[in-house]
Amino acid sequence: MTEQKSLTPEFAHYKPGEYAQNNIRITPTTLADGREFYYLDDDPAYVSGEKTRELKDPRPLAPRFDPQIDADGNEVPYAAPQMRRDPLTGDWIPMATARMNRPITAGAGATASGNPLAARKPGDPYQDGEVPDTDYNVVVFENRFPSMVRVPGMSDAPTLVDNCELWEQKPAAGRCEVLCFDPDENGLPANLPVRRLRTVVEAWAFRTAEDSAIEGIEQVFPFENHGVEIGVSLAHPHGQIYSYPFIAPKLETELQHTQAYHEQHGGNLFKDIMNAELEHKERVVMRNSSWIAYVPAAARWPLEVHVQPVRDVLTLDQLNDQERWDLAEMYSTLLKRGNAFFDKGDGKGMDLPYIAAWHQAPVHDSRRENYRLNLQFFSFRRDVNKIKYLAGSESGMAAWISDTTPELIAKRFHEIGAVDIAD
User: Which is it for strands 159-160 and 168-171: parallel, antiparallel or unpaired?
Assistant: First the structure.
């Protein structure tokens, strides 16, 4: 077996704080096809080195960028994701045909009986799992079926679709990672102890620091999709990290507004929004010493909460130890209260489908200095048995119509729990 790494491996850009240095062991390895993989252990037996992780992936996988065999038995080049720019909006649209073959274990379209995100189970008929060990705390690894990936030797130079200047295309040379929160494949993120979520927060910071330094990356986006109704294909407590070779449309719009606000008023729009919510109080739903959570005054979704740090911070890797602990506490409380939001009459709430999206300052864009780290958490469930579907106005024109008001959303959160949560 490959020699176990030290408690605090040297990474080029990630610098662990005091807590992580002493309580989280990061162990890098490589999967059978060459993808990068990291264990993040908070179990004292692994932190101390008393126990070590399995580093060898036993699967007979070919190198990830090798030529592949198509349906007719012909050898074809690796199907690298491409992206094309929409001339009407300027948006880059990645296109990844290889994702059609990814395993699906959740919902009516399930194609695999096992779980590739679970720890390895000796004797289990499904042995194509992504984790080499039979147990883990938190793991991060490159997605086997990425929407974006940098292919060695492939030029990033733009070309034209059909040789027409209207349609620019380039390789989608980004990076897609999977972050598994816990080995219990039937568990819920809301039920994880705060200490485990603290390790998840460290993983977000670790990968933000490292992925931001990758050639061509413009934005690092950690996010979590939870629930079959959201479209999750793998039933397991996990999130993802997309590192885009462009600035995504949502962030671009926010940057335009934050920059214009700064030029006109000299302040930071996100900070001024947070302070205004604190002043008016009604829509503030949670707070601790480092973070404020509120329902935005123009909330789109029937359940929507934004979370900001009290201190001016641009990206997750800039958070200090106290802020990372307070974030783990805040996130745990938010998930629990989200599950309690809709009352089925039995007092048990429900497993809320949600998206948790981290909006960070872009990597290189000069407008980053007038941005601010924030989490945007939302669900399209609007009642116990009702879902908000995006109809013609929302899908066709991006003109949102809300089925509730931000004040009613905040009122429900106030019924569930106190605004001030314990530090």
Answer: antiparallel
